[in-house]
Amino acid sequence: MEKANSPHANKILWWILGVALFLLATVSGVLIGISWDGGQGKGWIALVDQVSMFSTIFLGIFIEAVPYLFLGTLASGLVEVFVDQDSLLKIIPRSKLGSALAGASLGLFFPVCECGVVPLARRLFRKGLPAPVGISFLLAAPVLNPIVIASTFAAFGNTPVFWGRLAMTFLISILVGGVFAFQTDHSQVLLPSSSMAYQPVAPLQRNVIGQRTAPGVGVAQRLQKVAVIAANEFFEMGRYLVLGALLAAFMQTLIPQGWLLAVGQGPILSVLVMIALAVILSVCSTVDAFIALAFAGSFNAGSLLAFLVYGPMVDIKSTLMFLRVFRRRTVLYLVTLPLMLILLAAVAMNYFVRF
pLDDT tens for residues 286-296? Predict the structure, then answer.
């Protein structure tokens, strides 16, 4: 009975944590407002301003990300119903470098951001996708997809920043995916719920609850399966999106962007500040190019690229979603390896490359 109730208990704990964060932000707003006027009665006005800012930021992040989370879960349902495990494994190169290249290139065919790519990658892992392929796809797809490529070009045009974003994302996703190619035991990388032992099963022969069915399932039944799978994953991943949006809004409310920009000078510190800003803002990769464009006059190209590359790979909400797919040690690698590579590349560009 305890095992049966544990998933529901976990869901309740996550929602309680979300409410607690909201209350914490409210209390912080009260304290900040009171400190601004020395307790002379204007604290409630400051509180209203803080709560309004917090709510606006939270809703902005959430509304921005929900459509892409829906696309990702819908794609996950389509993969589960219409993609055969045998066919998927046949098209994946067997070499370590080839598999990482294939994973980084998959983003061109899936227009999903950092929220939508997580449930899709987990579904592919369950279909038997090798870890290096899925990890390269997870890191590259939020940038290397048609929508984000078009938005980045619209913001920066045919400039080194545009090409640098694509090239740096592609190379770093391959390198990180290649690191995991040396880990042959996927149980050390993925959570048990994200992996599945290879079992050749004909496509479209499992019903909604996973039982075998006879061949020849109708189109309506197949689409019903897709809808059920997509809905389940949407609500499962959605609570992590809500929690991540709450955390991002909380940090943006308490940490003024102006303070970060004021201290963000120099070839190294500016990169660190833009990386921190990318994590704190947690904006969707489909619109972050226009935000970076607003900083183009204050930061050099290396710092802008750090913002444009690291943010789509790792931010608050995507990190929380990673915890539903990978083991904690793997999540630590997924956060730190891109950070070190991007920091090295961006600082080198600031020192040695002039645009």
Answer: 888 888 887 88
SS3 of the chain: the string is CHHHHHHHHHHHHHHHHHHHHHHHHHHHHHHHHHHHHCCCCCHHHHHHHHHHHHHHHHHHHHHHHHHHHHHHHHHHHHHHHHCCHHHHHHCCCCCHHHHHHHHHHHHHHCCCCCCCHHHHHHHHHHCCCCHHHHHHHHHHCCCCCHHHHHHHHHHHCCCHHHHHHHHHHHHHHHHHHHHHCCCCCHHHCECHHHCCCCCCCCCCCECCCCCECCCCCCHHHHHHHHHHHHHHHHHHHHHHHHHHHHHHHHHHHHCCHHHHHHHCCCCCHHHHHHHHHHHHHCCCCCCHHHHHHHCCCCCCHHHHHHHHHHHHHCCHHHHHHHCCCECHHHHHHHHHHHHHHHHHHHHHHHHHCCC
Q: Read off the pLDDT of residues 80-107 as tens digits, 9 standing for 90 and up.
A: 787 776 777 777 777 777 888 888 888 8
